[in-house]
């Protein structure tokens, strides 16, 4: 405390408060991801309960939402495992024993995210109105849609 008041050093103030020497946003990433998954789970469960118990009819869109929720669950688990193993830290601050798990989590996240987001963009317009045949063929051809 005296070093802060005298103006000699501000370094001693940060080391005395047990502040970590590197930033770690992993706990924040973990909390936000888990909270979002809990919220999404509540909405999916509520919709499926309403569609089953009240409307008594479950459509294709409802089942696609359940499938999307399963993928979101996989993405959330991958992010949470990555956050426990160094996601949210600078590369130099990640322990050597965590790199293997972190890289695997990043790979799985990328495959799930790209593999799910591309088909969902194609399915969105098809659920609201039928696409012309030429556009459907163009969107289904790999390499022609820019991805």
How would you concisely characterize the structure shown here?
Residues 1-19 have low confidence and may be disordered. With 147 residues, this protein is mainly alpha-helical. The chain contains six helices and no strands.
> What is the helix/strand order?
HHHHHH
Ends apart, CA distance between termini: 57 Å
Which structural class should the secondary elements be placed in? mainly alpha
Helix content: over 70%
What summary fits the major beta sheet?
none
Count of DSSP helices? 6
**Share of residues in strands:** under 5%
The total of beta strands comes to: 0
- Overall mean pLDDT stands at 76
Segments where pLDDT lies below 50 for 5+ residues?
Answer: 1-19
Q: What is the general shape? A: elongated
Rg:
23 Å
Describe the structure.
This protein has 147 residues and is mainly α. The chain has a domain at 25-116. Helix content is 71%, strand content 0%. It contains 6 helices and no strands. It has helices at residues 2-6, 11-16, 26-55, 60-84, 99-128, 133-140. The longest helix is centred in the first third of the chain and has 30 residues, at 26-55. The protein is elongated and about 55 Å long. It starts with a helix and ends in a 7-residue tail after the last helix.
